[in-house]
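Quick one, tokens below. Sequence please?
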């Protein structure tokens, strides 16, 4: 019988519990089903579909709105008893099995979304097998690297400040350490690399390829998740390299809007709230902000996990009546996080945190750690241990 071990390096999870991943997908499906159904899209393509925001989007739209979905992600399957692959691999499988049980199409593409070939394979599938054009395209990629499909050059993103170094507290979840980190300002090359990887270029390439192939339905919507944050994280996030990449997505949204005008399509930037994901856990200082914010928001009853936030975005806002937009036309479900009391209390709380008290109940370290663990299938609610072998895992098909 396989033993699943939670193996953390810094704030990166290396271990995985495939059965826990499956249970978490089922928990998220239950969350959506308990909310009932809503009228939404029917044919959805999600780029970055295997974890956190992308996976939550897929679950909400399939089980809330009855959508057929195509999910593109970059994950690894099991090799041997010491290398079981990645959580997203198992999330994809659990999602497909559950969706197919309900009679929904759930096609997984596990490949590099940045390549031209990937886009063409997805397009061929839409044309020949999906049973209709796509009415929603969700762009939810987070990556550290991207190979330019035309030049073959590989770019790396860097989460860095601009101009001045930033000094502040950070948390290491591997050894429960609270330490001072200095984030150096980005070089020109790092800025350019981050724009190339996390900016909107690939989103635009996807939309151009899909439009060119005539697989987008009239009135198609495409969403892209952004983050703006507040003065508490601006120096290293909104005001840093990632912020520049997000601003590039704002610009590309305008280009995509023009591209889609003749089919009445729309590109929508969605400024989402801070949540615990594999991508956000490695943003310097961010975990400290999160344990302050989550404590305050939990007490106010406004703390959300990705599935709660995403389901509210589509059910209540995008396909509902409660959408809030800013002056730039971005959807703003992050208003709960940005609420002035919430921010003031978070600021006061994180100023009090130190190595002695950060895991105590004055903040929400335990919640952050639990949410982080769930991403790899550990500490999952309703989890029941079962016997499973490496052959069982290898036999699973995505
Ligand atoms: P995540 O790390 O949980 O998921 C990233 C997804 O991208 C995974 O499905 C992964 O397989 C896929 N992916 C990565 N490289 C790929 C490649 N080359 N080809 C195909 N798939 C690939 O990330 P998370 O946090 O859900 O981020 C999604 C988006 O949401 C990002 O744009 C992020 O900036 C944004 N966002 C995140 C917030 C947070 O607090 N986590 C807050 C607001 C926005």
């Amino acid at each position: 019988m396989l033993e699943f071990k939670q193996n953390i390096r810094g704030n990166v999870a290396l271990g995985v519990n495939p059965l826990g991943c499956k249970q978490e997908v089922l928990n998220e499906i239950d969350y959506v089903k308990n909310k009932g159904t809503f009228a939404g899209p029917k044919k959805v393509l999600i780029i970055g579909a295997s974890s956190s925001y992308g996976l939550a989007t897929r679950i909400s739209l399939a089980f809330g709105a009855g959508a057929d979905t195509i999910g593109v992600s970059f994950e690894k399957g099991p090799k041997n008893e010491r290398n079981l692959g990645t959580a997203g691999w198992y999330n994809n499988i659990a999602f497909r099995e559950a969706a197919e049980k309900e009679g929904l199409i759930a096609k997984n593409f596990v490949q590099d979304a940045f390549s031209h070939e990937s886009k063409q394979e997805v397009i061929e599938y839409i044309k020949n097998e999906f049973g209709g054009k796509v009415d929603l395209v969700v762009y939810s990629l987070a990556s550290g690297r991207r190979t330019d499909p035309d030049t073959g050059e590989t770019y790396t993103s860097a989460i860095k400040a601009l101009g001045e170094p930033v000094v502040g507290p950070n948390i290491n979840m591997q050894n429960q350490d609270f330490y001072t980190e200095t984030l150096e300002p980005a070089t020109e090359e790092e800025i350019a690399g981050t724009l190339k990887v996390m900016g909107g270029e690939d989103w635009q390439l996807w939309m151009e390829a899909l439009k060119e192939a005539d697989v987008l339905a009239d009135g198609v919507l495409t969403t892209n998740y952004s983050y703006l944050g507040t003065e508490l994280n601006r120096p290293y996030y909104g005001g840093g390299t990632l912020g520049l990449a997000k601003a590039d997505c704002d610009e590309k949204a305008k280009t995509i809007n023009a591209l889609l005008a003749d089919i009445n399509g729309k590109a929508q930037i969605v400024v989402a709230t801070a949540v615990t994901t594999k991508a956000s856990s490695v943003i310097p200082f961010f975990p400290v902000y999160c344990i302050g914010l989550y404590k305050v928001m939990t007490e106010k009853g406004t703390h959300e996990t990705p599935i709660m936030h995403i389901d509210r975005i589509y059910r209540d806002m995008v396909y509902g009546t409660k959408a809030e937009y800013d002056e730039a036309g971005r959807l703003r479900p992050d208003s709960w996080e940005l609420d002035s009391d919430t921010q003031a209390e978070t600021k006061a709380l994180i100023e009090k945190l130190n190595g002695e008290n950060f895991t105590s109940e004055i903040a929400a370290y335990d919640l952050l750690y639990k949410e982080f663990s769930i991403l790899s299938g550990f500490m999952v609610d309703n989890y029941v241990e079962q016997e499973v072998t490496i052959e069982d895992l290898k036999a699973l098909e995505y």
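The pocket of NAI is lined by residues 48-54, 72-75, 88, 112-114, 140-143, 225-227, 272, 274-275, 277-280 (CB under 6 Å). The chain has one domain: 8-395.
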